[in-house]
C-alpha cells in the first residue's frame, strides 16, 4: 500500500475498520472473551484505541461514546442482550493466554 497517497490509504483503513465493526455486529455470538483468547483484543479494546487516537489528535471522544460506536448501541444494552457468562473453559483459556504473555514479557 506504499504506492497510495496518505488520504487514500486513510480512507481505505477507515473503510476496513468500519467493515470490521460491521462484521463484529453481524457476529454478536462471538464474545469478547473469545476475541481476547484468540486475538488479544476485543470490542472494548477497539473503543479504547479510538479514544487514544482522538486524544492524540486533540479530538474530544469519551470512552462511553466510543463504546456505543463500536457496539452499535449503548454498552449496557449490548451487554444485557448479547453478553454471556464466560464458561470455565473460556476462563481457563484466557488465564493461560495471559500467563503466556507474562512469560514472554519476562523472557
UniProtKB/TrEMBL annotation:
Residues 97-107 have a biased composition (Basic and acidic residues). Residues 30-95 form the SMc04008-like domain. It holds the Pfam family DUF1244. This is SMc04008-like domain-containing protein. Residues 87-107 are annotated as: Disordered.
